Amino acid sequence: MKTKILFVFFVIFFFGNILFSQNNYHKISEAIDSEPIYLINDSIIGNKQIIEKYKSYIEEISIMHGIQIEETKYSNFKGKGVLFIQLKITLESKGQKELNTFFGLKENSPVYVDGYSIANGSYFISVESIQVAEIIFPNKENKLESKALNIIVSPKNK
User: Fold this and answer.
1) Which bin fits 28, alpha (ψ -120 to 50), beta or left (φ > 0)?
2) How far apart are the first and last CA of the chain?
3) What's the rounded Cα separation, in Å, for the pair 46 and 78?
4) pLDDT attached to residue 79
5) Which of 71, 77, 84, 154 has the most other CB atoms within 10 Å of its CB?
6) Residue 154 and residue 114 in contact, taking contact as beta carbons nearer than 8 Å
7) How far apart are CA 12 and CA 34, in angstroms?
8) How many CB atoms sit inside 10 A of residue 51's CB?
9) Interacting residues of 117 by C-beta distance below 8 A, sequence separation 6+
10) Strand, coil or helix: what is 94?
């Protein structure tokens, strides 16, 4: 009897953890994992080309990836990592509400960069970095509740 109870407990514990575990971050199936998120001056998301273009204005570069990123406000990007760049200049950028409005979505619609959610609303996206902007419609695969905007900043693989 003890063996059966122990077995049932183990099965419930094991499968319960699998079924009810959640990722600390949200990404959609269209996610691009090829490059880290380039976070410029603490709030502007850019890409490698921007850094190359403005390399003479770089003050500091640091990186955060994997476990060290999990308990930070950047945890949503743990699959990509974050490259922090401080520039001596300000880049032209657009906020999430502004982008949503431009594309005909509700101001508070979810915004993704390269398929990774930037849910907290405090990020901007470098205008020069935008490669593609696409509206993602809810489906079984992406499990979105409403339309979302996915901004691609990573260059397409050649």
Assistant:
1) beta
2) 62
3) 17
4) 75
5) 77
6) yes
7) 37
8) 18
9) 25, 26, 27, 76, 110, 111
10) strand
Nearest to 135 by CA among 123, 116, 149: 149
Distances (CA, A) of 64 to 34, 44, 151: 16, 16, 22
d(CA 114, CA 36) in angstroms, rounded, equals 10
From first to last of its 158 residues, the chain has per-residue pLDDT tens of 555 544 444 434 444 433 333 343 467 766 777 788 899 998 999 999 999 999 999 999 999 887 777 778 887 787 788 999 999 999 999 999 999 999 999 999 999 998 888 876 789 999 999 999 999 999 888 888 899 999 999 876 54
Which helix or strand (DSSP H or E) is residue 98 part of? helix 96-102
- In angstroms, the CA 86 to CA 84 distance is 7
Contact 137, 98 (CB under 8 A): no
